[in-house]
Amino acid sequence: MGKEITIYDIASQLQLSPATVSRALNNHPAINEKTKVLINAKAEELGYRSNKFASNLRKQKTNTIGVIVPRLNSYIMSTVIAGMEKVANDEGFNLIISQSLESQRKEIANTKTMFNSRVDGLLVSVAFDTDSFEHFQPFLKKKIPLIFFDRIFENSDCPNIVIDNAKGGYEATKHLIEQGFKNIIHITGNLKRNVYSDRLKGYQQALSEFEIPFKSDNVWVTALSLEAGKEVAHRIKALPIKPDALFVSSDLCAVSCIATLKELNITVPNDIAVVGFNNDPVSQVISPKLTTIHYPAKEMGEMAVKSMINHLKGNFNLDATNTITLRSELIVRESSLFLTHS
Amino acid sequence: MGKEITIYDIASQLQLSPATVSRALNNHPAINEKTKVLINAKAEELGYRSNKFASNLRKQKTNTIGVIVPRLNSYIMSTVIAGMEKVANDEGFNLIISQSLESQRKEIANTKTMFNSRVDGLLVSVAFDTDSFEHFQPFLKKKIPLIFFDRIFENSDCPNIVIDNAKGGYEATKHLIEQGFKNIIHITGNLKRNVYSDRLKGYQQALSEFEIPFKSDNVWVTALSLEAGKEVAHRIKALPIKPDALFVSSDLCAVSCIATLKELNITVPNDIAVVGFNNDPVSQVISPKLTTIHYPAKEMGEMAVKSMINHLKGNFNLDATNTITLRSELIVRESSLFLTHS
DNA sequence: CTGAAAGCGCTTACAG
DNA sequence: CTGAAAGCGCTTACAG
């Protein structure tokens, strides 16, 4: 009970050296198969559990991957984390997770903690306002692999895991145009971030393809929050010439906007069509159901951890594949369909 | 760059022993204040970072708290985790998080991993179908503190952190009754779990207080998922005598049900009033807005980690305070208001 | 207030 | 295929 079993206990009971026990437990090829069986049986019998701290200390590795996200409690991020946890657990890696709460200041503090925790690798989705790369430099200097996902730091030379945000923005906008909508407002987040700037590019591309002039007044930068959705609705209500469609870079914000528009007697899609982004469950439980871009959050989390572990194990070099792009897709529901357009 | 600074480097540069450096860095009272200042300055200068693995190995502690939740990507749980992360980070503890995906089998596997990771303490919210305590016994045997939160294991003698679910159920039901609704169906989850059985008790208590007979046919056990919400709506549609209200133990399920009811030409609250549970953001972005019970998820996460750390530090004994109950409250919105009842 | 020394439990280069 | 020995970087009981 009180006493912990070590490889020395196994060794002495089996009349072997601790070195052999250690090798057998780690499935070292030089050890006789029969000896391995013996040792593993004894380990099982005694309830041995390996001491990670001794092992990590000796090996100078931590088997730990750090994760920094803007926030833990958004649909996308909690789903990404769920995917990460699954893979990490299966591979015997630990995750240290922290949230920047959308502030570069907190993100810097988080990177310091991660650095001091000696993570073997770091996975980051950057905050809204991050515009310096400096806090990531210590990792590169120490050759600790750094991978960005979702919200990447552009021109960083670090590997990135993303979806094709431009394509997502393009498809969302094109769909609206094909439904007959021409005056489309794009509600987005801080354009410093690739996810938003790329979707904007897609939006512009679609407009230009259909020869609809782009107006910068039609791009509204918001916090993409629940509150932002309400504000957008009120702003639209006050507009002399109303848009006929909205492309919103977040489902939750889109849905909140739709609810508020309804309160203001503007109905969706009849008065204004709406397309969201993410395929958050919320998009299915409102009426009208929200057309959106499916975001493979779980897959992204899995891919991020898998790539990191492969790199750490030397299975493949991350630098070679600088960007991994996951598939996203348009899901058409009622909120964007042309009905009885007035 | 390559070389890591240790206390030996600091010691030799300062002509001191590693023992003194170690003590100074840990703010040991026996060390001269001036020496401490000197040592800390040198540590800073050299970019020293403590090696947790050596320290943990020596101290036989891990500074790690294990967390097992049913799933990471639900509003409640991701918010609980966000609260946990905040406190753990501030206190220098690490979290190892894993998800049981509502299966006892996976939960058992998770407890094994946690045990082998030698967590200093374990925080658990149990799966839907967990009915054995056996997989937690190894922790008690080794005197590793175990705290349950949200979904607790009843009669376990372990400390619990919960809300007053019976009170929540009571208030939700009482509110509906006071609005004039009498035929109230309760949609809930697996009644093995305290969160659901207690809410049911509250529901029954409110009915009995108003002398409305309880009918077990009015309690529907579901997965409380998005899909479950749809099924409930269809089942109601098929009912010869329809209920006038629904008390649903999850906002997401409630909202999905409302959306489907609407498709079936049953409107909320006019035809059927609805009260949810959790105060998920989704409750605010639909129309009508959902009346619900606010669940202090972030606070629960913070409290769980705080209690665990205090216990580990010996600040107070957990066994003394067997149950910590956090405040929840009814939030009245449109979905439950008596309008033009037909 | 400071130091010498042992030991936490592993892994691995070296030797045979 | 197996072993002896050193060492990873700390902490702490003991001594002074």
UniProtKB/TrEMBL annotation, chains A, B:
Domain HTH lacI-type stretches: 5-59
Keyword Transcription included in the entry's annotation: yes
Organism domain of life: Bacteria
InterPro entries reported in the protein's UniProt record: HTH_LacI (IPR000843), LacI/GalR-like_sensor (IPR046335), Lambda_DNA-bd_dom_sf (IPR010982), Peripla_BP_I (IPR028082)
Database matches in Pfam families: LacI, Peripla_BP_3
Entry-linked PROSITE patterns: HTH_LACI_2 (PS50932)
Keywords: DNA-binding, Transcription, Transcription regulation
GO molecular function: DNA binding
Descriptive protein name: LacI family DNA-binding transcriptional regulator
Organism field: Arcicella lustrica
